[in-house]
Amino acid sequence: MAENHIPMRPPEQVMRLARMGSFHQSRLSFMRVLLRRMAAENWQITQTDWQVNGAGVGHAVYQAKTPLRVYSLVVFAHDLPDDLRSDRVIAEAWDVTFTLFDGVPTDADITRLSQNVPYQEVGRVSPREIVLSRANRSLRAWDYALEKLAKGEQPDADKILQVGYFMRTTAVYGSGKFGAADRRDLLDRPELHAPFQAEMLAVYLIRCFVMDLLDFRAKAQGGDSAVRLAPALRRQCGIGNSTGLGMAPFLVHHPALIHCWVAAKEAALARVRGVKTPSGTAHAAMRVALCVAQDSAQAWQSEHPIAKPKIAELRGDLARAVVAFDTELPADYPWDWLYKWGESNLSLEGSEQIASVLLEPYGDLVDGLVECLSIDETLYYRINGEMGADELRSAIERIYPWALALDFAKPANIARFWYVSEAKLEPRLGERFEENGAELEQPLAIGRDIAGLYQAAEAGGSVADILLSAPEFRHTARRVQIAMRFPYSEIRDNLVDEGMMPIDLLRFKLSFFGATHFDPRSDRWLRISMFAGAPFPDELRVDDCWVRPFGGA
Amino acid sequence: MLSFYETGVLARRATRGAGYDWGLAEEATFAAGWLCDYGVDGADVLSRYFRRVDGQTVASRAVRAWPSGDVWEGDAFGNLPLCPLCLGAALSDFGLPSGVEKVVISKVYAPVLLLPFIASLPAEDGKIWTIEGEVTDDITPVRVVIIRADATDSVATDAKKNPRYPQKEDAFLLELAQRTYVPESEASRAKGAG
User: Cβ–Cβ of A468/B194 closer than 8 Å?
Assistant: First the structure.
């Protein structure tokens, strides 16, 4: 069926910030990878402990039994007073705190965790814990729904779905943070091999807990007259997430990994575009997928001036795409035609939505690429010192022409600097010519450093020679050599430009997570919804395309 | 106990705080993690080494030129004791000359920090490079002799049997890391940075 004559889109097209900031979730998004595995392997997810009182204080345990192992979400509920609730990473108290435990916790484990997990960054966890996180209630949705359910009434779906979730996480820590298990020690587990699977599992399980807590509190408050949240509305609710700059440097510090994510998605797109004659089923499924995307765009709400025009464009684009699908689609290579039509006629939002939609009917061509989403980055870490300066310079000319074209003496091109804040050790973005601290900037001025390395390499010799006389470009030479091997590893834009939009970086990463309905709150942090529409454990079934808009299609 | 990840982050930030370029801070992350995996608390070695040389410039301990013979000393190479991170990175980049059976380096601080770099050099005709004699975690500058050995003697081919990670964050490494942080400005806070 597939004829692989369609090349993957080139990195200079894909890895631009404006496009990356228009990416949408797809079959290869990490949440969907997790749910497909859960369904295929028939994971058993159960609430095994519930020690929460009527005021919503206590702990609970949810177990996920996989074919080989058990993972347990240990949740502590705190019923935070309103004046202490903050979504900032710098907060010190939360409505719920939780950890994903490796195995089945003993009473002693629960006691140990109760003395640490509620304190988050100030506490310590152990290699038995894989994820550490916390969440706060959305006051608007939570209080309203609780009041209604306690009275025996269903809340108004529109009011709830304007928010889309009852709680939102602020940070989801994994990979060895605060003493938790290191990712490298979990890589041989098939269920955790794809990126961020443990983090996604923790968020999925906390969604189960939040829904149970809501019903439980309503019952405690309303007694026999209370009702449970209606299943259809329950399913449409996700878990919110507030994400800030902390996520951005990850993309720069893991170039080979980022390549894997993008290369897998691009390979999937090329495979689907290479389908010459789709089956009737695939044709019908594609139209459904397009309509689902259209409905999702209708339901996507944001008041932010960055997002509003993008959402409006997307809605218009998808309406036109449905018409084009119905009236112009050729018999041969229709998906290649649709992709190209989108590139020529739609905004970046629209054409990237088409790129994701195209993967939907083709699990057989796409899903196997999940195996390509991870990589042992340490294998590509060592610098090849024997490489000649000429080879290095030509690679820079090929991969970084945008950097060589910029004049880094111009203030606009180096207007920003990335730093780590003293207060919370979090990444921040400063204005180089207005704020102090630029001498302590983090190595994210890639373009500027590339231009410097290019110049340093003029002297000739080998990379080893260059780095002996210009050790300040060592990290940059490593990047170039990684990019030579992994073409999608490098963002092809200037990360310290005065007009750079950090939320483009966040959107890129979050789309790979599988997030939807991005709601920027500034140019550097946003809110999203995770697992909205996803089946609960008793609803899981194989190949369920659950990423649907509110209300479903 | 710190995780591998935490050990690496602390090593990277502290090395940067000790005045090294980013690429060498990355090498320190690699070296500290490698040593911990093989039972030597690499963060502790870094801490004692950085304390010993605090106040010196990195350049004063850096490799200035790459020698071609087998005895490496003198002004061109670096007349002060060498930094094992700078030397290790250069060894990794240049490799050791083929046809030479051993290389003598007059003085290097904390030679145990060279091991991760030497172990990553490719084997040649079944021979790998290693340091002659016992290598302790002492940081005092000493003469180092790098020799060829049978590949079966390589520490790198041993299973990682007794990893040893720091029990807690080292105070001096934290102090060095602190030098890399920027007080958050009002302007940045107002922009809602996360």
Answer: no
Residues whose CB falls within 8 Å of the CB of residue A522, separated by 6 or more in sequence, listed in order: A304, A503, B191, B192
pLDDT at B186 > cutoff 90: no
Beta carbons of B22 and A474 less than 8 Å apart: yes
- For residue A125, give how far its alpha carbon lies from the nearest alpha carbon of chain B (Å): 10
**In this structure, what token pair is assigned to residue A116?**
């640490």
In this structure, are residues A172 and A203 in contact, taking their beta carbons and an 8 Å threshold? yes
Structure confidence at residue A551 (pLDDT): 34
Per-residue model confidence (pLDDT) at position A86: 66
Chain A residue numbers touching B13 (CB-CB < 8 A): 420
Whole-angstrom distance, CA of residue A100 vs CA of residue A32: 19
- Mutation pick from A416, A426, A434, A467 vs chain B, by most beta carbons of B within 10 Å, is A467
Below-70 pLDDT ranges, chain A: 1-4, 84-91, 542-553
Mutate to test the interface with A, among B37, B169, B173, B184 (most CBs of A within 10 A): B184
* Contact assignment for A386 to B95 by CB distance below 8 Å: yes
A515 CB neighbour count, 10 Å cutoff: 27
Give dist(CA B96, CA B130) in Å, integer.
11
**Which residue, among B5, B72, B165, would best test binding to A if mutated, counting the most A CBs under 10 Å from its CB?**
B5
B178 has a pLDDT exceeding 90: yes
ipTM: 0.94
**CA A65 – CA A167 distance, rounded (Å):** 25
Q: Which pLDDT does position A549 carry in this prediction? A: 43
Cβ neighbors of A511 (< 8 A, separation 6 or more) are A23, A24, A25, A26, A29
Give the closest-approach CA distance of A390 to chain B in angstroms. 17
Find residue B142's DSSP bridge partners: B108
Which residues are within 8 A (CB) of A210 and not within 5 positions of it... i.e. 6 or more apart?
A96, A135, A166, A167, A239
The tokens for A294 are 């259209």
Helices and strands counted in chain B (H then E): 7, 5
Contacts of B177 (CB under 8 A, 6+ apart): B10, B13, B14, B16, B17
